[in-house]
Structures are given as C-alpha cells and as structure tokens.
Amino acid sequence: MQSVLDQSYASFEIIVVDDGSTDGGCEQLRDIDDPRLVVLRQANAGVSVARNRGIDAARGDWVCFLDADDLFHPGYLAALAAAEEIHPELSVVGTRFSEFAGDHVPEVPPPMRGPTFEVIDDLPARWCKGPTFFTSSVAVRTGVLKSMQPCFPPGEHMGEDLDLWFRLAERQSMGLLHKALVARRVGLFDSLSELQLRCRP
What we know:
With 201 residues, the protein is an alpha/beta fold.
C-alpha cells in the first residue's frame, strides 16, 4: 500500500478487495486517511472473483493490479502514463519486473540495451522468448476490462491471469516497457505464486 501512496503520479484511486483475509492486514488500512482509498470486503471467493470485483468498482481510465506481496517503484504509474501518451493506440501496457526475498527490495536496474519500449503483436511467440510482465506489472484500459467481465475465470486460482493476458492479446497489440518498475516478492510460503509452484494443474 505504501508503494502506491509513494507514486510520483498522484492522480489515482486505490481499490482494496479484502477477500475474507484472516491475517489482520485489512485492519491496518484504518490508519490511512486518504480519500483515494476504497476498501471492499467480501467472504472468501478466490483471487479471480476479487479482481473482477475491483474492476467493476474502478472509475479511472486504466486498471493496474498489485498483489499484497509486491511493490511498485515510485515512478511506475508515471511511466505508464508516459507510455500511453506515446502509444495511445494500446490498451495493455506492462513493465519488466525484478524479484526479491524478505525485506531487501532491489534497486531499479538500468533499462536493457536496445529499444526501451516494445510493441508485442504476437504474445504467445513473445512469451516463449523470455520474461515479459506479470499481474502486478501490467495495466489495462478500464473500458476494455469492463467489456470482458468476468475477466478472470471465477473459481480459478492457477493461470487465471495468463488466461486474461492471452485473451487480450487476441484483440490487440500490447506494450512492454523494458524497465523493472515493479518488485515481485518470492519465497513466501503462503503466497499464490509459491502455492502454484507446489501444485500441478
């Protein structure tokens, strides 16, 4: 949450969907006095239903996703806004990301050599070549998402995000900023990504 509040681009809303959490995390939000924060509570229904509810509530032009164990770089939203100005034809824009364990957040690495921005016309082929983006490093135009509801398949908790990215890719090209502006925490036993690694679909 603090990584969102620290954004240099300040025109945003924060929608927190509490999907029946039991770790006390949502109670900590009571100390945040910010009119941009909206908290929606529901009985546990799974990650797909939670994300779809957040999309329904969104009022901005774009939706970014941020899972509870990931962090935005302070310039993340500003970089997405700049990319949208340069490529207004795109409805999906993502950034590269770095990974960290524990509380040691990595420094933002310099952009990769070559073009700093890539337009992806064939996501399946591009995905096979190497890392692109993940849920917490992608933004999608709100109108596109609302037209596809339910965006994330209810009841699914494995690959539900990839399902949406590839369906979006069938409609239009995507943009990828080659700078790691999101940090993905790894090594947490109870995180969704770690649970997926221990399961077979």
